[in-house]
UniProtKB/TrEMBL annotation:
The lineage of its organism: Eukaryota, Metazoa, Cnidaria, Hydrozoa, Hydroidolina. V-ATPase is a heteromultimeric enzyme made up of two complexes: the ATP-hydrolytic V1 complex and the proton translocation V0 complex. The V1 complex consists of three catalytic AB heterodimers that form a heterohexamer, three peripheral stalks each consisting of EG heterodimers, one central rotor including subunits D and F, and the regulatory subunits C and H. The proton translocation complex V0 consists of the proton transport subunit a, a ring of proteolipid subunits c9c'', rotary subunit d, subunits e and f, and two accessory subunits. Belongs to the V-ATPase C subunit family. The keyword Methyltransferase does not apply. The keyword Phosphoprotein does not apply. The gene is LOC100209803. This is V-type proton ATPase subunit C.
């Protein structure tokens, strides 16, 4: 997928079409870029003061909507837990990838009515993306909580014997149950100390049942043993065992709790699966919505800056340029030469040269209107 586009505009020569054809001749025919018309509708211009203020506000809105677009795309990748190519397949707008959508851009009058003032359209977009951002935070928080709980349970079932849930390791017959005096403990012993444990465990305190220790399982670092002793010496045993770096796990066999523990991870996995589908559908729909909004912000910026630069009546051609990889510098040089004559010719409605505040506040200045749109959506 193409990762970079330039949105530019220049005054119409005899016609805007001639402006576009001249650009293609200088750039596309030399293998520097692929060029497309950026189709803008007839929009309400408003006053010069309104346009100047809107220019600054659209710059801030552009940064904001780009940030949320990338945040949503990145979270989509996190939810899918797939490789980048697979994630990009899901980042679609009306069945098109972002680059194709841009090259076929048409203003969505249903979402952003052209009869509205430019400021009103900007506010519609701002409210829309604020709502998407708010909904994303809510949905991500809920799903992440389920995911974190499941991961925590999975760690407990697969982690070190020091921390893992032991209910999947032990069986009921490993324990002395319902005894008034005796209790079976589970002890985690470093693998380097297993020989010592088997030699000394009966001597750690008095009142330990001889030959009661049984090796249940081992991982890469530890082994898990049982030991049975009188309840009255449990605290003393724990103390002296800890001195030897034998760790007694707090575990008491309980049929109900054991069953619940085994069911919990299954239930949490089902909860995650149940929430996954609706979340993915929401992310697909709202990625499309926010990318459409971002594209329209770019289109608005091109329109506003073009009117500020080239004056009225509206007579400019907006164009979308996809630079050929490695040809950016050469392409820039050609554009600078093609539109060098525009410097000093910017005028207001009356044809007077004006210095418009904020016109150069959103990036580098060129004699033509220029904005960049990078589609590296999974990079933050």
């Amino acid at each position: 997928m193409a990762s970079e586009f330039w949105l530019i505009s220049a005054p119409g020569d005899k016609t805007p079409q001639q402006t576009f054809e001249a650009l293609k001749l200088k750039t596309e025919n030399q293998g520097l870029s692929l060029n497309y018309k950026l189709n803008l509708p007839e929009l309400k211009v408003g006053t010069l003061d309104t346009l100047v203020g809107l220019s600054d506000d659209l710059g801030k809105l552009d940064v904001h909507v780009e940030s949320i677009t990338k945040k949503l795309a990145s979270y989509f990748a996190e939810v899918l837990e797939e490789k980048q190519d697979k994630v990009l397949e899901n980042l679609q707008i009306n069945g098109m990838d972002p680059a194709t959508y841009l090259t076929k851009f048409n203003w969505d009058s249903a979402k952003y009515p052209t009869k509205q003032a430019l400021r009103s359209i900007s506010e519609i977009i701002s409210k829309q993306i604020t709502q998407i951002d708010s909904d994303l935070k809510t949905k991500a928080s809920a799903y992440n909580a389920i995911k974190a709980s499941l991961q925590n349970l999975e760690r407990k079932s697969t982690g070190s014997l020091l921390v893992r849930n032991l209910s999947s390791v032990v069986e009921k017959e490993h324990f002395i149950l319902n005894s008034e005096y005796l209790q079976t403990l589970l002890v985690v012993v470093p693998k380097s100390s297993t020989a010592e444990w088997e030699t000394v465990y009966e001597k750690i305190t008095d009142m330990i049942v001889p030959k009661s220790s049984m090796l249940l399982t081992s991982d890469s670092d530890y082994s898990l043993y049982t030991v049975t002793l009188f309840k009255k010496v449990i605290d003393e045993f724990k103390h002296h065992a800890r001195e030897r770096k034998f760790i007694v796990r707090d575990f008491v066999w309980d049929d109900v709790e054991i069953a619940a523990s085994k069911e919990e991870i299954t239930k949490m996995a089902e909860d995650k699966k149940k929430n996954f589908g609706p979340l993915v559908r929401w992310l697909k729909v709202n990625f499309a919505e926010i990318f459409i909004a971002w594209s329209h912000v770019k289109a608005l910026r091109v329109f506003v800056e073009s009117v500020l630069r080239f004056g009225l009546p509206v007579n400019f051609q907006a164009m979308l340029i996809q630079p050929v990889k490695g040809k950016n510098r050469r392409l820039r040089d050609v554009l600078d030469a093609q539109y060098a004559h525009l410097d000093g010719q910017q005028s207001n409605v009356k044809g007077e040269t004006v210095d418009i505040p904020g016109l150069m506040s959103h990036g580098e200045y060129y004699s033509y209107v220029y904005f960049q749109m990078k589609l590296n959506l999974l990079e933050r």
